[in-house]
Amino acid sequence: GSADQTVRLWDLADLNGAQAVLSGHESVILSVAFSPDGQQLATGGSDQTVRLWNLMDLNQEPTLLDGYEAGVWSVAFSPAGQTLATASQDGSARLWDADSGEPIGPALQHEDTVVGAVFSPDERQILTWADKVARLWNTADGTRVGPAMVHDGEIEEVKFSPDGRHLLSWSDTRTARLWDAATGTPIPLAMTHDER
């Protein structure tokens, strides 16, 4: 993505020129994600929209996903690629059917800008985070799982373990925390790093 409102696709075998330039956003593009099979590209922008591009037919108009009240900071496909998660400055994350572009369930609400979302390996849960708070949700119905996961500082990233049983989050205070993914409760082990 870029400030010129376009996404450029490159052929890594020939870096002399962009293979394609995708345009349609009306403002800065903030996030991009390829589907696991490489056939779709999702782009989120400060124009309060997400576009789903069919990379097998670049002449096809992208599917427009809208309804946000602020820019879209993050887009992420589920491991199987059938669901897209989006996270916005308006304090919400949403799930979408990646084929039809239809919303799935209710918006997942936070009090602050939602900066990221990550699916569990089995796709039954999604974790979203905003400022110092991460929340775990059931993807089937959008209900919250366990209490909010809170850091002392702003959460920078969260990852599921490969088996989906644990979550690791870290914040700008150089603190990492481990969580039980089934309940969203902390595992009593806080890891702190110095500035190195």
Model description:
- There is one protein chain.
- The strands form 5 sheets. This protein has a 4-stranded antiparallel beta sheet with strand order 3-4-5-6, with no helix packed on it.
- The chain is built from no helices and 18 strands.
- By secondary structure, the protein is mainly beta.
- The protein is globular.
- 0% of the residues lie in helices and 56% in strands.
- It starts with 5 loop residues before the first strand and ends with a strand.
- The model has no long low-confidence stretch (mean pLDDT 89).
Mean pLDDT: 89
* Total E-strand runs: 18
* Count of helical stretches: 0
Tell me, briefly, the overall form: globular
* Order of secondary-structure elements: EEEEEEEEEEEEEEEEEE
**Helical/strand content category:** mainly beta
CA radius of gyration: 17 Å
Helix coverage percent of residues?
A: under 10%
Give the end-to-end Cα distance, rounded to a whole number of Å.
31 Å
**Biggest β-sheet description:** 4 strands, antiparallel
The share of residues in extended strands comes to: over 45%
Spatial ordering of strands, largest sheet: 3-4-5-6
Low-pLDDT stretches are none
